[in-house]
Amino acid sequence: MDIDQKIRKKTQKNYYRYEYFSYFCTRNVISKLQNRYKSQQTMDLVEKIIARAKSDKQRIVLPEATEERTLKAADQVLADGVADLILIGNIGAIHAEADKFGLKNIDKATIIDPENNPKAEEYATLLAELRKKKGMTIEQARGLVKNPLYLGCMIIKTGGADGQISGALSTTGDTLRPALQIIKCAPGITCVSGAMLLITKKPEYGENGVLVMGDVAVTPMPDADQLSQIAVCTAETAKAVAGFSDPRVAMLSFSTKGSASHEVVDKVVEATKLAKERDPQLKIDGELQADAALVPAVADIKAKGSNIAGKANVLIVPCLEVGNIAYKLVQRLGDAIALGPILQGIARPVNDLSRGCSVDDIYKMVAITACQAQDAKKI
After folding, report:
1. Fold of 53-184+347-376
2. Which sign does the torsion angle of CA 237, 148, 96, 100 carry?
3. Cα separation, 203 vs 189, whole angstroms
4. Do 53-184+347-376 and 193-342 agree at the fold level?
5. Per-residue confidence at 44, pLDDT binned at 50, 70, 90?
6. Alpha helices of 220-289 — where are they, by DSSP H?
7. Predicted local confidence at residue 28, as pLDDT
8. E strand or H helix at 15
9. Nearest CA to 337 among 193, 194, 197?
10. Which end of the chain has fewer surrounding CB within 10 Å, N or C?
11. What is the CA radius of gyration of the chain?
């Protein structure tokens, strides 16, 4: 090999090294910028939620107050003035835990000991009356009002609080049962559902990349009437929590405007009609495929003339299976952030945490619940 060939070979090798290095540097920069954008977008939305909560402080019950993460979140909520808190638990145990973790703001909360509650008999009498048709006795009611989850709901029922959060220790069933027995559903609503806030890296979709999806958590196979309720409730959540001034609801299906025929498509069409009757002011259309709901170019082909297609920011799925799978796929494959689920349809907000939740998750859910409570008072 002559000297010129050696130089050419070395130059070519250096060129490929440069291209390889440049490619990965570019990818790294793009990835960092995308992550920074998503982080900033999430921060902006969460900060707005917290600011709304602070603007009209609500009374939120934390019935699992002796639990470490809950107590730490409560301390931060009280320090920041996000909400007024009612902590349920043994007063000595709560103060001992607060001292153990160096928490300085717990004294700002109202603490109620379920075993030594001066309103216990009043709550038991009311609970027995509420559940009389189900055969509840006063003795059973007296036992239940010592249960922190039931006690919290009784405080809300009697006007002493505006919302409740549990689930760090309790199951979803344990969280929902007292809420449905005592607080009950909102007027005109018979089913509870769960909404998810999806914060994506795609500002061209939804509301600057933010979408609200329902139901993702509660009702497995809603009928047309229940689906219409889910649509109305999710639009309300979009306004109350995500701050959407103009919710645009797409009723999703595998069909767009009659492109396929099936009984599940018929259900979505009927649910769209019923939702319009429930709330004549609601901006809603269906049935729409997901691409027709989100992409203007696809909407122009598949759903020309629709005032929702191509610009939806609220997505209603036909069943829980679809919703749960969809948000997790968007979260994992699309690298979106999912906030929720946010329970909806109860007369006053009661939200369910994951038992694997963090202190920050609880803090955010207090702010979300406070925003829901503000909105519930307008009804």
Report:
1. Rossmann fold (3.40.50)
2. negative
3. 33
4. yes
5. confident
6. 224-240, 263-278
7. 58
8. helix 3-55
9. 197
10. N
11. 25
DSSP state of 133: G
Cβ contacts of 136-140, under 8 Å, gap ≥ 24:
none
Cβ contacts of residue 138 below 8 Å, gap of 6+? 124, 125, 128
- The answer to whether 168 touches 69, Cβ cutoff 8 Å, is yes
**How many other C-beta atoms lie within 10 A of the C-beta of residue 65?**
25
Sign of CA dihedral 107, 111, 113, 117: positive
Q: Is the pLDDT of residue 38 over 50?
A: no
Domain segments of the chain: what residues?
Answer: 53-184+347-376, 193-342
Q: State the pLDDT confidence band at 378, using cuts at 50, 70 and 90.
A: confident
**N- to C-terminal Cα distance for the chain?**
86
* For residue 21, pLDDT beyond 60: no
Under 8 Å between Cβ of 212 and 242: yes
Whether pLDDT at 6 is above 60: no
Chain CA centroid to CA 252, Å: 19
- At 373, list the tokens: 């409570």
CA distance linking residue 193 with residue 230, whole number of Å: 6
- 242-273 tens-digit pLDDT: 999 999 999 999 999 999 999 999 999 999 99
CA distances to 5, 49, 67, 174 from 209, rounded to whole Å, are 53, 16, 35, 34
Quote the pTM value: 0.85
**Nearest residue to 340 (alpha-carbon basis) of 188, 331, 220:** 331
Asked if the model's pLDDT at residue 39 lies above 60, the reply is: no
Q: For residues 102 and 184, what is the distance between their CA atoms, to the nearest angstrom?
A: 38
**193-342 placed in CATH 2.60.40.10:** no
Q: What is the mean pLDDT of the chain?
A: 91
Q: What is the pLDDT of residues 210-251, one digit of tens each?
A: 999 999 999 999 999 999 999 999 999 999 999 999 999 999
Region of 312 (left: φ > 0; alpha: ψ -120 to 50; beta: rest) is: beta
Give the up-direction half-sphere exposure of residue 277: CA atoms within 13 A in the CB hemisphere: 11
